[in-house]
Specification:
Two copies of one chain form a homodimer. In chain A, a hairpin with an 8-residue loop joins strand 2 and strand 3. Chain A has 245 residues and is α+β, with helices and mostly antiparallel strands. Chain A contains five helices and ten strands. In chain A, 22% of the residues lie in helices and 31% in strands. Chain A is globular.
Chain lengths: 245, 245
Amino acid sequence: MTRTLRLVVAYDGTAYSGWQIQPSRPTVQGLLVAAARPLLGEDIRLTGASRTDAGVHALRQTVSIRTARAVPGGVVVRALNAALPRDVRVLGCDEANAGFDARRAAIGKRYGYLLNDAPIPAPFLLRYAWHVPGALDVASMRRGLAVLRGRHDFSAFRAAAGRDRPPTCVIRALHVVRRRDRIAVVVSADRFLHHMVRNIVGSAVEIGRGARSHTWLADVLASRDRRRAGPTAPAHGLTLIRVLY
Amino acid sequence: MTRTLRLVVAYDGTAYSGWQIQPSRPTVQGLLVAAARPLLGEDIRLTGASRTDAGVHALRQTVSIRTARAVPGGVVVRALNAALPRDVRVLGCDEANAGFDARRAAIGKRYGYLLNDAPIPAPFLLRYAWHVPGALDVASMRRGLAVLRGRHDFSAFRAAAGRDRPPTCVIRALHVVRRRDRIAVVVSADRFLHHMVRNIVGSAVEIGRGARSHTWLADVLASRDRRRAGPTAPAHGLTLIRVLY
């Protein structure tokens, strides 16, 4: 009988070429498959809810594994963590309903993007925050981003060579929070286009540093033209916070 | 004429054999001296307020440099940061009174020690927190540590091969703060013995995990015997927060 396990996985993406398994490159999916096979069999199917890009981190990525073997969740957690490098950790594992697919079952995801606007970049944030020197105007960023809330065609914020899928997403929450010289942009949506958060943040920074007015994004959104939005923010500031089911 | 510069320096200590310059090992003082000489001359004298151990971090280490050259603070900041690796950053530089010595002039220091008591260690905290699995009882830790506040002979908390200097220190503030699965122990004192914070934290963890009662540290302190206190907490959880003048 086939069983489906649901895992919660955290990782520091600094050392990895993203989530998706690739020949001869270290990826998080590749590591998990290699760690899981001795325990769960060669013919497992392992799916992550979010295919995070190279350098992107995850606090709680959800992963489903189909396996023919019956292994208790606690054993899976210990065995995988013993085989994985320390910057990838399985936080929990339980048995899901038959046919559960972490990617297809997700009804939403929440991402966080960390900015550091200190004059000199803080050594502790190097791996986790995009350093933008010169104080950002967070109030303007908030006003500028407000227009993105709700259901829209986000073609203007998809990757230049965007994947061929419907460009409509629903942003349910979008917050900008400052704490000293760290600014977190948190975005929750039913789904995301490729590079969508990083393009939104790159545009928000244009507003925050005064290069664009807070009314700019309404035009960018309506244009559906990627060339109108700001640059893509670097991957290392982005973290998958959680997946919603 | 000799001038004295006062610098504020932040570093991630992970890659370094501590503060103090050593032949053929990477140290923070060694990096700063090498970065400063082309700008400030070969005969500079560079002193840090705290000789942090290998792996210990600093948010605001204070450094004094005596030099015969007159260079504006902003130029020093830019030149040093251009020459230093990204995990060591000069945050500021100004001219101090003649004869200012960052170490001798300090009237106190504040250190923070970060613990992570999640069942599975968080990848993001690997470099900055000591992972102690199993929930720590923070209320007991607070009660147990309270006896250390004030002026005491801290011989019981100095390094086993402690340096030969007076063992009396005044702990002005000592706090234990939990935020989810992260616990910060913050200690301010007029001066610190070698390994003192790490030995205090190692002892606090013994109380937090229930191996010792909250009354234990009164006996340990009175004994002045290093063998009575808890183990030395690992270096990577420790951060010099700031130096007081």
